[in-house]
């Protein structure tokens, strides 16, 4: 069974009530094999009263591939996102057939007024705060770099141009980790992911002109 480490004391309090988590799944990360996704679903089913799953949309995933310079990025992204979604749906059917967990992608709330408001705040911070902009680009560079290492070898590194080309991926995901509870219509939630999000932690510490909702937390999942 996976073990959850809350990122802050407030995250620990939210997790203590075991109400809801939003499980993040990445399409181009080798960690997210079918077996690992099955473990994620089993952990969520055993650990909290309710949960949902978040994937990037096809267009979002294609930005990573386009930044790397891959041919037919949209078609490849469609294939990879669909494969991960099937794995999620199979895992849910196997471990929690009675649980109607929703599988969302980044674009599901694109027309939601609260999402649009959060996204506007993110855009303003990105335009006006140099530290925040660098932190977002660093996250984008990590995402692009992971794909680069897959296709070009372990020494490949993403450059500034590639990070900038894919940074919309990070910006569109941020509303879900700033106030996912409001978007999902739940009292409180935690994003559950396999590694820390330094950008989220810095926002939570008040380093940037954005706020994390007190109803929102973050969990790092790791093996015992």
What this model shows, in words?
There is one protein chain. The protein is an alpha/beta fold and 224 residues long. The protein has a single domain, classed as Rossmann fold (3-Layer(aba) Sandwich). The protein is 57% helix and 14% strand. It has 8 helices and 6 strands. It has helices at residues 9-17, 34-47, 58-68, 73-95, 113-128, 130-152, 160-184, 198-204, and strands at 2-6, 20-24, 50-55, 103-105, 189-193, 216-223. A 6-stranded mixed sheet has the order 1-6-5-2-3-4. Helix 2 packs across helix 4 (73-95), helix 3 packs antiparallel against helix 7 (160-184) and helix 6 (130-152) packs across helix 7. The longest helix has 25 residues, at 160-184. 42% of the residues are buried. The model has no long low-confidence stretch (mean pLDDT 92).
From the structure above, extract its key features.
Rossmann fold; 8 helices; globular; alpha/beta; 224 residues; six-stranded mixed sheet
Predict the CATH topology. Answer: Rossmann fold
In terms of DSSP E residues, the strand content is: 5-15%
The CATH architecture classification is: 3-Layer(aba) Sandwich
Number of domains: 1
- Mean pLDDT value: 92
Runs in which pLDDT lies below 50 for 5 or more consecutive residues are none
Shape: globular
Query: What is the CATH first-level class name?
Result: Alpha Beta
- The Rg value, from CA coordinates, equals 17 Å
The tally of strands reads: 6
- Elements, N to C (H/E): EHEHEHHEHHHEHE
Q: CATH homologous superfamily name? A: Cyclodipeptide synthase
SSE-based structural type: alpha/beta
What kind of sheet is the major sheet? 6 strands, mixed
Distance between the termini: 7 Å
Spatial sequence of strands, sheet with the most strands:
1-6-5-2-3-4
